[in-house]
Design goal:
Largest sheet: 7 strands, mixed
Structural class: alpha+beta
Number of domains: 1
GO molecular function: acyltransferase activity, transferring groups other than amino-acyl groups
Keywords: Transferase
CATH topology: Aminopeptidase
Strand content: 25-35%
Strand order of the largest sheet: 1-2-3-5-6-8-7
CATH superfamily: Gcn5-related N-acetyltransferase (GNAT)
Domain N-acetyltransferase: 1-156
Helix content: 25-40%
Distance between the termini: 32 Å
Bound molecules: coenzyme A
Protein name: N-acetyltransferase
Number of helices: 4
Mean pLDDT: 97
Length: 179
């Protein structure tokens, strides 16, 4: 298994991975929504604001994780949000997701990212260092439909203190349907 952030030229395979994985787990409508989200993220996000990590086995993309910048207008810290992540249905439960995300978090730490947020199942994301966080500590771009799924972790030695100002996500995530 190889992990990398070299996604350029692989966009179609990545979109297909997300579409198929979410179709299998959540149904065709969600599969199409998430596939389209990832297409939009890769097409419209400026390079420094986007990381797409892939897990590859025998030349096939079997996992993907997308991180995009969340800018706080009165805060100097660099914040990224993880969404979405997928591992091929037939290869789930073998640790690929956790290894891919640990690799991704280390790369972001090395790049100087201060904080990573995500929005998902705390029981899964706590395995890779995320803990519940409040909207007061880290304002989200939209009112969260499931605030119990708002999670964060510091990639530095500093604890997360309140992020100041309004948050602005990348254009592809700028839709309340994702929040
Ligand atoms: C969520 C996902 C990325 C995890 O990747 P993975 O490679 O299967 O996960 P790992 O093998 O690293 O970890 C597996 C463990 O996490 C648990 N787990 C997997 N998905 C979970 C979920 N959605 N919620 C809670 N726990 C989960 C498994 O039960 C397993 O537990 P065990 O080790 O005690 O048996 C993958 O299952 C997936 O693509 N699911 C469908 C899409 C999705 O829901 N994405 C996340 C939302 S953006």
């Amino acid at each position: 298994m190889e992990f990398s952030k070299a996604f350029k030229g692989r966009e179609q395979d990545i979109i297909e991975l997300f579409t198929a994985t979410f179709t299998a787990s959540e149904g065709a409508e969600e599969g199409a929504l998430i596939g389209d989200l990832v297409r939009h993220q890769m097409a419209s996000t400026a390079e420094p604001d986007l990381y797409v990590f892939i897990a590859e086995a025998d030349g096939m993309i079997v996992g993907g994780a997308v991180f995009s910048q969340l800018a706080y207008d009165q805060d100097d810290r660099t914040v990224f949000v993880l969404a979405p992540v997928a591992v091929s249905t037939e290869l789930q439960g073998k640790g690929i997701g956790q290894k891919l995300l640990m690799h991704a978090l280390q790369t972001l730490r090395d790049a100087g990212v201060d904080i990573v947020l995500t929005y998902g199942d705390p029981s899964y994301y706590s395995r890779i260092g995320f803990a519940p966080i409040t909207e007061a500590l880290a304002p989200a771009p939209f009112k969260l439909q499931h605030p119990e799924g708002w999670l964060g972790q510091s990639l530095t030695d500093d604890e997360i203190t309140p992020l100041e100002g309004k948050s602005r996500c990348v254009e592809a995530l700028n839709d309340p349907v994702f929040w």
